[in-house]
Model the fold of this input.
Amino acid sequence: MNKKAKTVMIDYSITKILERNKKNARLAAVFAALFILTLLISISFITIVAILSDGFSTLISGSELCSNPDGDGYESKSSNHINYGSYGSDNSTCLTPDCIRLAANYLNNMNRDANPCEDFYEFACGKYATRKVIAEHEKKVTVLSEMKREMDRHLKHILEKSSRENATRSMKLAQIHYDSCMDEFAQDDLGVQPLMSLISNLGGWPLLTNARFDSIDFQWEVLAGHLALHGVDGIFRVFVHSSFDDSNKHVLMFSPPKLFLEKKKFYRKVPSSNVYLQYYRQYVLSLLSLLGVDMEDETGVIEYQVDDIIDFERRIANLTRIELSRNHSSINNMITFGDFKKKYDKINWEAFFNEEMRSNLGRMPDSLLINVVDVNYFDNLYSLIKSKPLSSINNFLMWCLVSNYDFYLPAKYRKPMLEFRQKMYGVSSDDPLWEVCVGEVRDNLAMPLSTEYAHKFFTQRDKKIAEDMIRDLKKAMEQTLLNADWIDESTREAALMKLDAMGHKIGFPDSLLNETAVLLPYAGVRLTANQFFDNAISLKKAAYRDALSKLHRTPSVIDWASPIIAVDAFHYFTGNEIIFPAGILQFPMFVPDAPSFSNYGAIGMGIGHEITHGYDDLGAQYDDKGNLRGWWHTETMTTFQKKKQCFVAQYGSKIEPQTGRKVDGKMTIGENIADNGGLRVAFQAYQLKLDREKETKRLPGMTEFSPNQLFFLAYANTWCEALKTSAIDHIMDTDVHSLGMFRVNVPLQNLPAFSKEFDCPIGSPMNPFEKCRICENCNARYKTTTQKTGFVPLKNKSFYIFLSTSSDPFDTVTMFSLLIILMFFIQSAVSQNANDKLIACCAHDPQIDPGCAAKYCNFPNINQFMVLPFIAECGPKGNTVSRVWDCISSKHDHTQCCTNQNVLPLCRAFCNASKAVPTDMLKYGFCTSEFDKYRLCFRTHLKHHNAIRQ
Done:
């Protein structure tokens, strides 16, 4: 119950009690005497509080809350107001190498001159950027990018140092491809010949030789089909994916192609006023020049054709409607293949699906159901194609091929792309060759490389620790869903079913232990050490064949929808599962021997983040089986949308300091919801962990911080980053995640537990009046204001001081303390009155065991900690349990009272005491924690009514 509601109840209770007793002069006299007594006690009480509480003096003096000499309105870090807890001297310090590294990380990143209540990111990460050097080829340095680089070093060692003689066949493929990538001399010797051979095999590209285009035998659908086999989208993309309607089936998907500039927003303006398209145009011209195109053409034909290529791609981009769509029903458009061909009969689909594609897809009858991801795109595609000559379509498709394969040419042919990246992203050099080649093998031969990595850097013990954390995180999410009073019961039940069914994959799949399974995706692949370009073609064709072959296979629970060597985690909507590959379960995100606060604050938040994705604006559209289905009640969904808009507005108001740009709250909404929910459930899970076992480890040099404070430091250290100013715009334009400073500060601003742990005063930057949250007992925008609630937390968290608009805080505090103590005496009288009735009821019932009656038939003895012992001891003794329950509850329906007391919705069944008995609680063990709320309702009712007749 919130504090305002408690205040209202106190006022109501006092009024009710006094009205019912004002005819009783004797009782009134007692109350008068108690009033005088409690006045004296209150004065003494306030005096003690004023002495003991270091925050109270400012209230008495009427000064600004927690002001400092600098006049900023909040105490500085050095003030005693910032409550750095201490473990105490009886805890052991973890001195393992990983613990020492972890402590060094935290301490080196920390800016102790910053006030954690003003900017926690600056406090936790303020020195990170000053210690990092952003390489010329990088846009930024982050904790995750450093983890990736460390993983790449391990992969480099695997590829270079592993025994070649004893290597498995799959590992030999990886090593050969790596060697061919590193062999720049062989690439220089071959020059552009491999690319020209590929172009020739696909029908040639007259633009390269300034020759005349012959359209007589040209079918763009045939060329598009061959490009698809080479891993190039072209005009549209065809791929296999789990069905949105039935996750137990695969379906063929038709969608718009991937765009070279990534986002539709980069294509909106016309080229003359669009700097991104100008960068793109220069890249095309520079690469064509290196490929031998005569750029001195006085007629301007080459530049015209280049402009036409860009115009065609721009018009494709403007046809798409799915980029900003977060309504997955709009991308689920099932149709039979026969009806699809009839609807879009101007396109020769038989020519597109060439023999090789069909051999891998298998049967494609007209009755086959397919999914048209973007109907608007395909409805208008032929009009676009018809508006262009066939030469333009050929130019565009061939450019798609060249821009996908220039990476595999000698270094000098990659310079145009480097210049483009420099302008677009702010990077000024190419990646080191070894990083490029490790990345190439990781992308195209992930299975054998993952096998070696997982064997060396991930253990079964690691997996067990991660799985234990997942159980805690899911339990915390369960409690969150149970506590969300804005969710109707049918939606809550479905949400809990989804959580219970949510699977998880940790580390790596067992299939990596099977060489046959590892080799399966690369069937028929033959690689040669000095043929980098041709090796790439073989691998890309094999990957596409493998993907198509899954069409008629049933998705398996053992299949992984993510790479293993990825420094990332995933939520797979149609699988209703979360995935944590071995690559993300590494230092400093996951440190098995470190104190629990470190793991729960870092990878624990990541686990919570992925679980929350199951309930964000996208995940909420998928049910427990991973099927796209509307399972939310309309009113609940309306409330959810309002809560979602709170986050959109909150993040949309945040300004990046170097550029002055505001965060795109709409583009980042899914990740922002997941960040907030992930942090919340991770902290709750950590509390569950502490309930089971005390935190006994501490980090060297950090004993001034409590475990909870270190949890938040671990969380913040996950998102420390250093950004290149020239790259910030592009990052904010393309990344669906908020920048690190906002990933840290905003979720913490929305979490009251953080402000409590660091004693951040209400109204300080890290404890704002307005907060957003999804799954809590709150409105869309949760307000924590002294004007609204009337409560301000003191340094001693056992006390709350009530403030009114009175100019004399001392009088107000005294009166409220008086009322609290007076209420205590009144409630004692009420309890005694009700307790006498309860004792008498049990004493007069011959079916109640006398021993149980003596032990449990009084309100002080029957509480949430005694319910289960009561059931265990008295359950075997006839009808004792149910008859005692009748006396305690008066066999009355207390549902309304329980609702007012914020009893968990699923536990309110026990409030209708004529229909439920305590033994039923064994089915819902968590409801025992609500028993004290039932007891308050039962006792209040019994005070004003006669006991039942036994």
In short: Residues 809-843 form the longest helix (35 residues). Residues 1-25, 43-82, 85-90, 778-832 have pLDDT under 50 and may be disordered.
